Backbone:
């Protein structure tokens, strides 16, 4: 019997068999590609390369400015562009405005944020107030938003005027406002930091003087009784930083004076032979150092005490501040300027050196500023750490509007110390940066965006970024008492005299 075998037909694999595998590979590749793109990478499929990228974001004031990147026009602000990491020349310009340019580094996976402030080429001048009278004296408050001007009237009388540099949105009062008339020009005024209250001193012909506590809105001197400090020996008067109290310092005590209930309270009694360091804060707190070290100790030991001016509630803010008495320790840091490293304080720490000369506390920024006979430091209230600002004696200036940086004067230079930053902003660095030599500029002030400063040098007002770049010449300082950039950034307010010598308030438009 013959058996017949059927031929078996062999088939080769088709595409349909590999589809699940191919799909899985494509999904993996697509996932990796999306991940890389989301992380800011670029994939060059022709060269088979993955390139590191970041982004440049340009937000100008005013907007609508043209942005040029390495010579290439990439559009108008607000503008962002993903680019490869590296160095770039950025140019921002707008018709009738001065150009802004900067060399920046773009790093991988992070945005490089730029905030150009464009200043008009031609500054239009507007006279806001033409008094047509001669100014005898001008006073400006610490916040630089209120001015009092004593003008000479025709018949041996003088009028005091109040001018608000920054008016509130719902403030419907006239500006300027005449608040007082007197026949005695021999007066001195100390304005509270916010300008709402003032200490008026009237000097009499018999070498006597009267001191009044007045509201700058009404200035009702006739309804007020003079404050009697005659029982105190050589009192030194100053305002608390919250603008509500007078601080009175004598040889033996420090008092607070409340103008509402006319009460004087003892804040601290002085110890003979000891230096007393104190300050106030915008939160209405009186701070003072209490030295606890003995003569034979190798370190100065202090506690930082706090007393609320309203309730007189006392508490210890810092239990121990140690400062080395041997001044040689500071020489090491002067020879090799330290990078900004935060550290804890203890009697064996050699970074904190010298007897403390002054302190300043800002609760909003969360810092304590300490100046000693040799150097200066910043204490971070939030994390309890210290950092050296300068290894030389220091005077601190104004805090920036964003509460991240402070101006300081040390070793003949003006510097900017940044103690807090936006983690996404890789261009901002913590620590000290030299701005210029102290002798080169005067009247340096923060501008409200905290990225620019105004100052005067060689008789001219300038504006520049805090790194000194994009410096713009604004106007000459001829016949001016005071100047400040408005919070809105659109104008420069100037107190000065016109060609006839009469007082006037002018505004120069920084934007068209």
Residues:
């Amino acid at each position: 019997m013959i058996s017949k075998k059927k031929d078996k037909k062999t088939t080769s694999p088709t595409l349909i068999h590999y589809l699940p595998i191919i799909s899985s590979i494509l999904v993996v590749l697509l996932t990796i590609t999306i991940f890389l793109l989301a992380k800011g990478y670029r994939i060059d499929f022709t060269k088979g390369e993955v390139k590191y990228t970041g982004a440049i974001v340009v937000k100008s004031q005013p907007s609508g400015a043209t942005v040029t990147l390495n010579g290439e026009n990439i559009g108008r602000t607000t503008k962002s562009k993903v680019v490869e990491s590296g160095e770039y020349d950025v140019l921002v310009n707008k018709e009738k405005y001065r150009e802004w340019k900067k060399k920046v580094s773009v790093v991988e996976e992070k945005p490089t944020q730029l905030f150009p402030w464009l200043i008009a080429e031609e500054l239009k001048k507007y006279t806001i107030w033409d008094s047509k009278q001669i100014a005898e004296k001008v006073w400006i408050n610490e916040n630089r938003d209120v001015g009092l001007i004593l003008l000479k009237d025709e018949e041996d009388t003088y009028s005091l005027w109040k001018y608000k540099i920054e008016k509130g949105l719902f403030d419907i009062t006239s500006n300027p406002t005449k608040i007082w008339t007197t026949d005695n020009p021999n007066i001195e005024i100390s304005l509270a930091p916010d300008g709402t209250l003032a200490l008026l001193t009237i000097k009499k012909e018999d070498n006597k003087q009267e001191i009044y506590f007045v509201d700058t809105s009404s200035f009702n001197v006739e309804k007020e009784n003079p404050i009697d400090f005659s029982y105190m020996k050589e009192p030194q008067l100053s305002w608390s930083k919250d603008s509500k109290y007078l601080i009175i310092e004598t040889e033996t005590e420090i008092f607070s004076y409340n103008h509402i209930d006319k009460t004087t309270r003892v804040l601290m009694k002085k110890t003979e032979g000891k230096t007393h360091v104190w300050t106030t804060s915008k939160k209405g707190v009186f701070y003072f150092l209490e030295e606890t070290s003995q003569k034979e100790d190798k370190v100065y030991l202090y506690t930082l005490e706090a007393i609320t001016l309203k309730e007189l509630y006392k508490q210890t803010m810092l239990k121990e501040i140690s400062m080395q008495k041997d001044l040689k320790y500071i020489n090491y840091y002067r020879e090799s300027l330290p990078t900004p490293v935060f550290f804890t304080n203890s009697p064996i720490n050699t970074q904190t050196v010298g007897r403390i000369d002054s302190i300043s506390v800002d609760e909003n920024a969360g810092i304590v500023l300490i100046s000693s006979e040799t150097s200066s430091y910043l204490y971070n209230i939030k994390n309890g750490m210290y950092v050296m600002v300068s290894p030389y004696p220091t005077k601190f200036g104004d805090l920036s509007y964003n509460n991240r940086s402070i101006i300081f004067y040390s070793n003949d230079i003006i510097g900017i110390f940044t103690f807090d930053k936006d983690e996404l902003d890789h261009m901002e660095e913590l620590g000290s940066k030299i701005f210029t030599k102290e002798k080169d500029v005067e009247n340096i002030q923060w501008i409200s965006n905290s990225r620019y400063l105004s100052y005067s040098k060689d008789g001219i007002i300038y504006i520049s970024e805090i790194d000194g770049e994009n410096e713009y010449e604004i106007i000459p300082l001829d016949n001016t008492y005071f100047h400040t950039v408005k919070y809105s950034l659109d104008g420069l307010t100037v107190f000065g005299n016109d060609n006839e010598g009469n007082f006037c308030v002018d505004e120069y438009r920084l934007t068209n």
Notes: The chain has a mean pLDDT of 90.
